Amino acid sequence: MSKKSAKISALIEGLRGRPLDAHYLGYFECFHRQLYYEAHDVLEELWLADRHGPNGDFYKGLIQLAGAFVHLQKHLSPMYRKRMHRLRPAAALFRLAHANLAKYPACHAQLDVIATLALIDDWLARLEAEKFEANPFSEASAPPLPFSE
């Protein structure tokens, strides 16, 4: 087991035994704690097993959504801000996430897809309103996803 797999296993261990997959639930737990990179990693294990299955694009869209917030979050760090402008890559991931999630019904796997698409549209509009010159993200502005377990 790789170091990455061990970390992911530890994150989801307490979520086993529920009706939904522990990796899927772990994604939301990490996302809501603003652990976007970890959310991406947790769901990636599930996506890799089902990338060509009926939920492949759904999981990919959620991974891309977390990835967009990774870019916004890292852009806040002075260490990264000088090296790389991450706002346009975040917008690209928001667009990809939107395209993938839009393929699914209004409510899918207990996620309000319509509200999630609106959330994505809102964050894209924020980036575009600032002409990709200012990061609209802060810990206080971090959105929860409309998920009900």
Description:
It is a single chain. The chain has 149 residues and is an all-alpha fold. It has one domain (3-141): Hyaluronidase domain-like (Orthogonal Bundle). Helix content is 62%, strand content 3%. It has seven helices and two strands; from the N terminus they run ααααααββα. It has a two-stranded antiparallel sheet. Helix 2 packs antiparallel against helix 3 (36-50). The chain is globular, with a radius of gyration of 15 Å. It starts with a helix and ends in a 20-residue tail after the last helix. 38% of the residues are buried. The mean pLDDT is 89.
SSE layout and pairing:
Layout: H1 3-12, H2 22-32, H3 36-50, H4 56-76, H5 78-81, H6 87-101, E1 107-108, E2 111-112, H7 113-129
Antiparallel strand pairs: 1-2
Helix pairs in contact: 2-3, 3-4, 4-6, 6-7
Q: Key terms for this structure?
A:
Hyaluronidase domain-like; globular; 7 helices; mainly alpha; single chain; 149 residues; two-stranded antiparallel ribbon
Radius of gyration: 15 Å
How are the strands of the largest sheet arranged? 1-2
In terms of structural class, how would the helical and strand content be classed? mainly alpha
CATH topology: Hyaluronidase domain-like
Summarize the model shown.
This protein is an all-alpha fold and 149 residues long. 62% of the residues lie in helices and 3% in strands.
